[in-house]
Fold this protein.
Amino acid sequence: METVLTTHLADDRYRRIDGYRGSGGYEALRKAVSMPRESIVEEVRKANLRGRGGAGFPAGVKWGFLPKDFSRPRVLVVNADEGEPGTFKDRLILTRGPHLLVEGIAITCYALAIHSAYIYIRGEYVLEARILEEAVAEAYAAGFLGKDLLGSGFDLDVTVHRGAGAYICGEETSTINSLEGKRGWPRLKPPFPASVGAFGLPTLVNNVETLADVPWIVANGGERFAALGCEKNGGTRLVGVSGPVERPGVYELPANVNLRDVIYDIAGGLRGGKPLKAVIPGGSSTPVLRAEEIDVTFDIESMAKIGTMAGTSGVIVIPEGTCMVRALSVLMNFYAHESCGQCSPCREGTGWLRKITGRIEAGEGRPGDVELILDLCDNMMGRTICALADAAAMPAQSFIWKFREEFDRHIAERKCPFGNSF
Ligand SMILES: Cc1cc2nc3c(=O)[nH]c(=O)nc-3n(C[C@H](O)[C@H](O)[C@H](O)COP(=O)(O)O)c2cc1C
Ligand code: SF4
């Protein structure tokens, strides 16, 4: 299978600029600065590149939302917050192939006439931030960033900005607020970042992996990238597999890969041949699947058809013997902790979900608690400033829809039938 990113992610050889350039790195940028700007955008459109940050929005379409008049400067915000539990793919790019991202940023900025880019990296990624800063400094020194890059007459400044470890700061408008030095609260939309974003300027926000795909697209053409995937999902994706599988890790795979094959062939199946109980397919906020539902193509549309999402393609494998009430309770703890508190359905709803799932797991659940959770979810979804409320409600609903019997047993038996205790 042809790959887009793995060549530069296989080991640490490509971390430094010499290794990266030795394998063709920055040649796509050289090509890009000799192309008309509009044709770079056109290649990205043809590539069917879907945003890799979770929502899967087509990158070419998003690029087109920036205003056509160039009277105001524009900004690129690179989302390197990678906070979604079960997601660790951007980290591989940041540590092994940071120049893939830097080159992707330079091409994107050139194509869209953006002179300032900010990489917002999560606070916990201390080593990653250091590697990234080194890569940015190397790119400046080699003339790939800064004034008159590659003699093109185009100037670009790239700043690495470290977050302080809040999940909500990965939501794009919260990222922008945090970058501006404000509290990391999501903003009401509209206005959307494309018209009023960072520092009040038109802003493009893209995920690390989305931008890291851009050099390959420019080097090889959008159509070739599109052909690596399936109809509406161009290219390959980095898929992170975690849980008790034989070979957990990050794999570059085409969008039309089967989810069962990801778990059994690529990740080697469950350790010790344990049976599979459930799979959270695309990071912790995506609805859970039962073991018998995983024979499905792992692309955005196919996953939506079975009521879940490809999300950030962080596949969490759950073995038989796991208490699903406890698993949900752990997730609800996370979302309640990370809610920024601006909207009452989210602030109160996530708190209640934490409380109720916790008491059911502790053997103190009450008749009606399951219905109460479902009712809370109905009152959270689609009613808040950002999607964090949905991100908490979707797993809660799906865990109940798919594993209702476990919730009922906890309440009826007044204990965890799996012998867990908090
Ligand atoms: C609560 C929340 C957290 C998010 N965290 C991240 C994140 O850590 N990284 C990321 O790239 N996108 C994250 N997103 C999605 C971003 O808002 C945005 O859609 C994305 O960065 C756009 O990039 P893309 O179009 O390249 O996917 C998050 C969204 C929400 C609602
Ligand atoms: S939905 Fe939750 S996290 Fe998002 S803005 Fe509202 S309170 Fe904050």
